[in-house]
Amino acid sequence: MLPLLLALLCAAPPTAVRPAVASGVPQEAPRAEPGHAEEQTHAAEQEHAEEWGTEAMLHHIVDSDELELFGRKISLEPLQVPPVRVAGLEIDLSPTKHVVFLWLAALLTILTVWAAARRSRRTDHGKDAPKGHLNLFEALYLYLRDDVALANIGHGGERYVPYVVTLFFFILYANLLGLIPGGATATSNIMVTAAMALISLAIVEISGMRALGAKGYLGTIFYVPKGLHPIMQAVMVVIMTPVELIGKLAKPFALAVRLFANMTAGHFVILALLGLILTFGSFTKATGLAAIGGSLSLGLFVMFLEIFVAFLQAYIFTALTAVFIGLIRHAH
Is the C or the N end of the chain the one with fewer CB within 10 Å? Predict the structure, then answer.
């Protein structure tokens, strides 16, 4: 955030175009008519305010084919690959900014688990207590295993612990990478969150098939209460089947939209607050100084809030996935 603030504070306002000089003879500057200076000042302020609008904020949030690191732009066009056609659909697998940061999130997740496992092998658990990185990882792992996976999935939930732990750390790193200078929040892309939600949906449905069998799993779609007349059973099947299907699709939809909306909204709030410096900021006016101080203070508060939201949204996505797995495995 510090490089962005320095760039905003050092940004110079648009300068007026100087009058042309013909034949080397200086021309006399035209005298300002009454009220003309005020109109020019108002026009300059309006042009200055338009510099930081919706398009400028979207530039920092939407996906693109270039990276921005310390003021330099790195194009990803050399890494583009030909599109793949599948069943008449054209799929572009070329890396983008969000794809690169998804790779970084996956790499950090692997390194976190690998470093903890390596440190654990070198630690004599009978004599020494876990320290540093291993201590933090074990605390998070035990909480995710006991209070998230096993508590919500129930009997047989041990096989889903690796997915739950991996999902939490992957989403957490993807959220936090967008808070560093030059970073991008891949989870603010609805396509990314929708893909993760579809993976969770596949795991939920497959776990239901394995736990309930074919007949039991079909009962979660074609629901018929026991003890009803055959005619009423047919009516209930017609009514409840669309409801059950909508319920299955609503779960991943809620997962995708919740994560996407929270991460996108936080970035918009920060960018809007910093944009107040460009719009109203001034070192010569009391209102301008108040705008700078207030924007920086509120922006810093929202940045800390974003760190908390990054952890919270990773936990919510992971916990709800475990809840959905537990619900379908124990469906009656």
Answer: C
From residue 76, how far is each of 44, 63, 64, 90, 106 by CA, in Å?
Answer: 37, 12, 9, 20, 19
Quick one: pLDDT band at residue 46, thresholds 50, 70, 90? Answer: low
Separation of alpha carbons 252 and 166, rounded Å: 18
| Closest of 194, 161, 174 to residue 102, by C-alpha | 174
Spatial separation of the C-alpha atoms in residues 181 and 14, rounded to whole Å: 25
Report pTM.
0.79
Alpha helices in the chain (DSSP H): 2-10, 36-49, 54-59, 97-121, 132-143, 151-153, 161-176, 190-219, 230-280, 286-329
Alpha carbons 243 and 237: distance in angstroms, whole number: 10
CB–CB of 175/316 below 8 Å? no
Q: Is residue 237 over pLDDT 50?
A: yes
Distance of CA 11 to the CA centre of its chain: 28
Q: Look-up: residue for tokens 């003021």?
A: 71
**pLDDT digits over 264-276, tens only?**
988 888 888 888 8
Share of the chain above pLDDT 90, in %: 39
25 DSSP 8-state letter: B
Give the separation between CA 175 and CA 101, rounded to whole angstroms: 10
Say how far apart CA 126 and CA 117 lie, in whole Å. 16
**Could you tell me which of 173, 180, 184, 177 has the C-alpha nearest to residue 1?**
180
d(CA 56, CA 53): 5
User: Over the stretch 291-321, which tens digit does the pLDDT of each residue have?
Assistant: 888 888 998 999 899 999 999 999 999 999 9
- Of residues 50, 2, 9, the one with CA closest to residue 282: 9
φ/ψ of 90, rounded to 5, equals: -100, 115
Residues 6 or more apart whose CB falls under 8 angstroms from that of 54 comprise: none
Task: Answer for the pair 173, 185: CB distance below 8 angstroms, yes or no.
Answer: no
Alpha-carbon distance of 137 to 156, in angstroms, equals 23
Q: In this predicted structure, what is the pLDDT of residue 13?
A: 38
